[in-house]
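User: Could you go from structure to sequence for me? I need the amino acid at each position, not a summary. Structure tokens:
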């Protein structure tokens, strides 16, 4: 089915080339990320991918820092990205039962 959209994908565990990944981010209008969360963090291979690709120093980097600076206190944590005109969606799976998210007495406090 032709929806009029072009999609490029990366499966981190299958390998990737840093320059190719940078080109994908520059090309994309929207970036969708799907990852599991283990022990309150993303898996090692995805963290390695982010470290290598986002701050590679090869060509145009995707971020330089977390955004905060003492010279401008209006800049908040998470504002250091350099491609902030794009749309992003982060989807995570937690291997947690639904009650963990709905029950205020459980870990996620119903949030």
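Assistant: Here is the amino acid at each position, in order:
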């Amino acid at each position: 089915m032709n929806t009029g959209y072009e999609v490029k994908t990366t499966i981190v565990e299958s390998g990737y080339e840093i320059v190719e990944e940078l080109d994908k981010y520059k090309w994309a209008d929207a970036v969708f990320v799907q990852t599991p969360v283990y022990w309150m963090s993303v898996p090692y291979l995805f963290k390695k991918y982010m470290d290598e690709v986002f701050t590679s120093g090869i060509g145009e980097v995707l971020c330089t820092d977390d955004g905060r600076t003492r010279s401008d206190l209006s800049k908040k944590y998470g504002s250091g990205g350099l491609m902030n005109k794009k749309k992003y969606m982060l989807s995570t799976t937690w291997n947690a039962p639904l009650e963990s998210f709905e029950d205020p007495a459980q870990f996620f406090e119903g949030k």
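One structural detail worth keeping in mind: Residues 12-102 form a domain with the Rossmann fold fold (CATH 3.40.50.360).
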